[in-house]
C-alpha cells in the first residue's frame, strides 16, 4: 500500500521528473513569494533584513526538499524541519497569529501545484503521476504547517514561562519586607509587561478543606498571583474588574481582600488581609468564600494589639472580678446595652427580653460595682470598648 505521507508520495514519483524540474525552482519560488505577499498583507513588506531572509529561505528550502525526495524519499530531515519550526517561532516573536503563516502555506501549495501541473502537461506526464504529485504537494503543506505550529507553541510556552517568572519576581518585590524601592518595582514591572497602577489591592488566599484540591483559577491576565507559595496571595490594580465574582473565579479557595493602598504600601494591604484571615480561622469573624477587610475595620482596629486590649479589659472591667461567670455575663450584657443606648429600664428590658424590674435590679448592682465611673465619659468609652472586645475574644 502506498504511503499517504509526503515523503512516501515523493518517493513513488520517477526520479528524472525532479531533475528535469530543477531549472524551474527559482521562477516558482519568485511566483510563490509574489502570491503570498499579495494574499497576506502582513507579509507585503520589503524583503531586506531577517524577515526577507527567513521567508525566502523557507520557500526555497521547501521546494528543494521536495525535489530531493522525488524517487528517493529518505533525505536529511534536520535542516528543513528546523527551518519550518523557526518560521513558527518568528511568527510568535513578531506578534502575529499563526493564521498568516498557514495562509501563506496554502497559497504556496496552490502556486506550486499550478507550476507542477503546467510542467507535467508540457512534458506529457500521465494523469496518475500528476495526481500523485498533487497529493504530495498538499501532504507536504500539512506537514510543514504542523512543524510551524510546534515552533509557534514552543515559543509561546517559553515566553509564557519567562513572563510568569518575571511576574512572580515582581510580586515578591511588591510584597517584600523591608519594602523594595519604587525604582526596582518600576523596572521589574516593565520587565514583566505589567502596567503599574497608582494603587493596588492584595488578596490573601487559603485553600478551603475538601476532598479535592482547589480548581484552576479563572483570573484576569493582569492579576499577579502566587498559588504555590506557603502563603498564597494575589495582587491587582483594578479590583472592581478583577475581583468581581471572585468566589466563582477561585473555586476551592478562601479569599480575604485587603484595603486598596499605594503601590509601595502593598505589604500593608497583605498584612491586614492575613490578620483578617487569622480572625476567620479563629472564628472571631464569620467564614465566607470572600471577605473584605473594609467590612470589619472596627474589629480589626479593636484587635490590632490583643495584649493591650486584654489589659484594657482587665482594668476597665475589674469590678466584675469575684462574680460568677453567669453573673458577669448578665451584668456585662446589661452594661453594654446601657452604654450603647443610655436608654430607660423598659427600653433596655425590651432589648434584653427581660422584665424592667430585672434591669433596675441589675443597674443598681452596676452602680454599686462601678460607682462614679459610670458618669465619666472616658471610663464609659473604655468599658464599651472592653465589653465589645470581650465579646469578640469570647469566640476564640
TrEMBL record:
Which is a Pfam family this sequence falls into? PucR-like_N
Residue stretches spanning the membrane: none
- Stated name of the protein: Helix-turn-helix domain-containing protein
- Quote the PANTHER family the UniProt record gives: CARBOHYDRATE DIACID REGULATOR, DNA-BINDING TRANSCRIPTIONAL ACTIVATOR ADER
Domain PucR C-terminal helix-turn-helix stretches:
332-389
Q: What Gene3D superfamilies does this protein map onto?
A: PucR C-terminal helix-turn-helix domain
- Cite the InterPro entries for this sequence: CdaR-like_regulators (IPR051448), PucR-like_N (IPR058663), PucR_C-HTH_dom (IPR025736), PucR_C-HTH_sf (IPR042070)
Amino acid at each position: 500500500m502506498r504511503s499517504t505521507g509526503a515523503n512516501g508520495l515523493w518517493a513513488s514519483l520517477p526520479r528524472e521528473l525532479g531533475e528535469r524540474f530543477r531549472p524551474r525552482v527559482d521562477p516558482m519560488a519568485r511566483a510563490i513569494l509574489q502570491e503570498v505577499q499579495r494574499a497576506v498583507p502582513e507579509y507585503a513588506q520589503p524583503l531586506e533584513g531577517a524577515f526577507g531572509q527567513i521567508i525566502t529561505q523557507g520557500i526555497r528550502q521547501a521546494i528543494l526538499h521536495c525535489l530531493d525526495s522525488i524517487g528517493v524519499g529518505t533525505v536529511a530531515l534536520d535542516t528543513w524541519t528546523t527551518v519550518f519550526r523557526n518560521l513558527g517561532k518568528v511568527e510568535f516573536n513578531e506578534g502575529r497569529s499563526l493564521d498568516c503563516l498557514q495562509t501563506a502555506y496554502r497559497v504556496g501549495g496552490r502556486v506550486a501545484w499550478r507550476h507542477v501541473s503546467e510542467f507535467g502537461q508540457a512534458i506529457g506526464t500521465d494523469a496518475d503521476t500528476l495526481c500523485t504529485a498533487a497529493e504530495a504537494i498538499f501532504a507536504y503543506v500539512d506537514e510543514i504547517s504542523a512543524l510551524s505550529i510546534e515552533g509557534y507553541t514552543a515559543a509561546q510556552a517559553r515566553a509564557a514561562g519567562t513572563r510568569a517568572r518575571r511576574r512572580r519576581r515582581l510580586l515578591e518585590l511588591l510584597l517584600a519586607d523591608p519594602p523594595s524601592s519604587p525604582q526596582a518595582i518600576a523596572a521589574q514591572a516593565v520587565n514583566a509587561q505589567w502596567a503599574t497602577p497608582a494603587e493596588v489591592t492584595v488578596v490573601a488566599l487559603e485553600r478551603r478543606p475538601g476532598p479535592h484540591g482547589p480548581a484552576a483559577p479563572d483570573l484576569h491576565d493582569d492579576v499577579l498571583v502566587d498559588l504555590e507559595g506557603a502563603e498564597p496571595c494575589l495582587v491587582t490594580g483594578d479590583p472592581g474588574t478583577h475581583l468581581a465574582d471572585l468566589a466563582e473565579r477561585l473555586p476551592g479557595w478562601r479569599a480575604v481582600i485587603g484595603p486598596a493602598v499605594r503601590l509601595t504600601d502593598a505589604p500593608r494591604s497583605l498584612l491586614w488581609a492575613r490578620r483578617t484571615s487569622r480572625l476567620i480561622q479563629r472564628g472571631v469573624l464569620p467564614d465566607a468564600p470572600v471577605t473584605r477587610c473594609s467590612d470589619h475595620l472596627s474589629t480589626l482596629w479593636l484587635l490590632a494589639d490583643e495584649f493591650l486590649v486584654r489589659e484594657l479589659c482587665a482594668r476597665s472591667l475589674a469590678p466584675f472580678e469575684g462574680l460568677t461567670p453567669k453573673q458577669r455575663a448578665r451584668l456585662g450584657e446589661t452594661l453594654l446595652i446601657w452604654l450603647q443606648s443610655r436608654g430607660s429600664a423598659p427600653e433596655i428590658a425590651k432589648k434584653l427580653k427581660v422584665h424592667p424590674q430585672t434591669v433596675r435590679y441589675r443597674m443598681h448592682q452596676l452602680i454599686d460595682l462601678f460607682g462614679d465611673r459610670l458618669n465619666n465619659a472616658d471610663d464609659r468609652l473604655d468599658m464599651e470598648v472592653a465589653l465589645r472586645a470581650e465579646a469578640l475574644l469570647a469566640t476564640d
